Amino acid sequence: MSRTKDFLTQIIVQRVNATDRVAQHYFDEASEVIVFGSMAVGLDRPDSDIDVMCIGGDESKLKTNLLDLLVFSRESTRNIGWLQSELALHVSRYGVWIKGAPDWIDRAHVGQRAILEKRRRVEAFMRHLPDSWSVLDEGFRVKYSVKVRREAQRLLLLSRGVPVPPTRMLDTVWGSFCASPGELQDLLRRIAPQDRPEFSREFLTYVNANLDVARVVREGKC
User: Fold this and answer.
1) What pLDDT is stored for residue 3 in this prediction?
2) Of the candidates 25, 169, 184, 187, which lies 20 to 30 Å from 123 by C-alpha distance?
3) What are phi and psi of 195, to 5 degrees?
4) Which residues of 121-141 are buried (b: 16+ CB within 10 A; e: fewer)?
5) Strand, coil or helix: what is 43?
6) pLDDT, position 1
7) Rounded Cα–Cα distance for residues 81 and 210 (Å)
């Protein structure tokens, strides 16, 4: 459930007061302040940071254990490359405006560059993982299978022009986003090295266990 503007404003004030004056400067200078990510949709955990975008001022980043702040210039929001990025589309769909009003979200859409970059990232993982898979302990196998699974989910959504939701929605409600049963597994099979079938089978076992795909398919949610 999406969080209210007042609630998120209160969280931001608390987090900014716990950091330094640099963060306050960015907020004061911004013409738009937007909360995005898990906290914007009410799926944050007690230890979650808050993802915030400020538009206006010099481009910068600030990250603490409480706050993940991105600062973009007004000119950036008029740049076609930015408007076609994964981040811009996500914020346009899931962001909650704390300050100012958007005048760019109607122009945000997925571009081919974002899709190609995401595909290259998934392909790189699937190309290099087989060489180290046999020596990874259980914890790292789970970690990398989750990481690759999420990136593959994002690739599928971007390829359909769908805004990528917060990460926890990929983990918990994938059935409401996928286009067909097994599409995620089919994508990973196609990208995996064809000469390493043992790795592909074992890797997909980890992906399925972490996503609980069997339940999603059984319940007809995909």
Assistant:
1) 81
2) 169
3) -95, 10
4) bbeebbeebbeebeeeeeeeb
5) coil
6) 60
7) 34
Indicate the residue type of 134.
S
**Low-confidence residues of the chain: pLDDT under 70:** 1, 212-222
Strands of the sheet containing 67-72, edge to edge, are 60-63, 67-72, 50-55, 32-36, 96-99
Element (DSSP H or E) covering residue 53: strand 50-55
Scanning the structure block, which residue is given the tokens 């046999």? 134
- Closest C-alpha among 160, 165, 206 to residue 180: 160
Which residues, other chains included, contact 214 with Cβ-Cβ below 8 Å and sequence gap of 6+?
208
- From the CB of residue 145, how many other CB atoms can be counted at a distance below 10 Å? 25
Query: Are β-strands 67-72 and 50-55 bridged in parallel, bridged antiparallel, or unpaired?
Result: parallel
Reported as half-sphere exposure (CB side, CA atoms, 13 A), residue 1 has a value of 2
The structure tokens listed for 144 are: 């990398």
Give the integer Cα–Cα distance in Å for 96 and 53: 10
